[in-house]
Specification:
Shape: globular
Low-confidence stretches: 1-32
Strand order of the largest sheet: 1-8-7-5-3
Structural class: alpha/beta
Distance between the termini: 25 Å
Order of helices and strands: EHEEEEEEHEEEHHH
Radius of gyration: 18 Å
Largest sheet: 5 strands, parallel
Number of helices: 5
């Protein structure tokens, strides 16, 4: 599941609340945005975690979120009509949630490439259902139960967290002591092992280590 994909997801706009982080980040960065647009370079290198673009924004400026290496997921509302290379260099961006259809998304990204993010584990979920694709209810998104960094699309997505390597399995969260899940090890044991790795290396990143091992194996 570690590849670039576009999925369709069911979404109820009335249930999604805008993160206060956006306004706070704008003040901290001394940049301006209004109900219509986010300025070019507004959050370059500064946005972190799981970020929400407010409903009603129509334009996202050039490189508005570029080089945000700690940006993990972004929600983009249906109201957005244009973006210009907004996520270049966001190497750890794993999920983009778009409030419109897949067809609308394809128009939105026609002038730039998702590959420019530098992320090789990026998934795009589209809220409005059109032909093809998998359906998700965006209200059921939840954070990885091991590291709390990846925002999974639902409670049993079987997506894999690129930060810690945990495969999202609802059975494991209901019975954290049991190894009867997609990972073959209990959630409790996996959490302890991940914590131990992070204590040894504060910059530990499962996907980076996996790629490193793969490249060494080819040498």
């Amino acid at each position: 599941m570690l590849n670039n994909r576009i999925y369709t997801t069911q979404f109820n706009e009335g249930k999604f609340s805008v993160l206060a982080l956006l306004r706070g980040a704008a003040q901290a960065c001394d940049t301006l945005y209004d109900e219509d647009a986010i300025a070019p370079y507004a959050y370059e290198g500064k946005a972190e975690g799981n970020f929400t673009v407010p409903e009603g924004v129509r334009h996202v400026g050039y490189r508005a979120f570029a080089a945000c290496e700690k940006l993990y997921s972004v929600y983009i509302p249906k109201s957005v009509e244009s973006m210009a290379s907004p996520f270049d260099g966001c190497v750890n961006l794993t999920h983009i949630y778009f409030g419109g259809s897949r067809k609308a998304w394809n128009r939105l990204v026609s002038g730039w490439r998702l590959a420019d993010t530098g992320s090789d584990a990026l998934t795009v979920y589209c809220a409005e259902e059109d032909e093809g694709g998998r359906a998700y209810d965006i209200r059921r998104r939840h954070l990885c139960p091991v590291c709390g960094k990846t925002l999974f699309p639902d409670e049993n997505s079987l997506d894999q967290c690129t930060h810690c390597g945990w495969e999202d399995d609802g059975c494991a969260e209901r019975e954290p002591f049991s190894a009867e899940n997609a990972n073959g090890v209990s959630l409790d044991i996996y959490r302890a092992a991940y914590a131990k790795k992070c204590a040894k290396d504060r910059e530990y990143h499962w996907w980076t280590e996996l790629k490193k091992g793969f490249m060494q194996g080819r040498m």
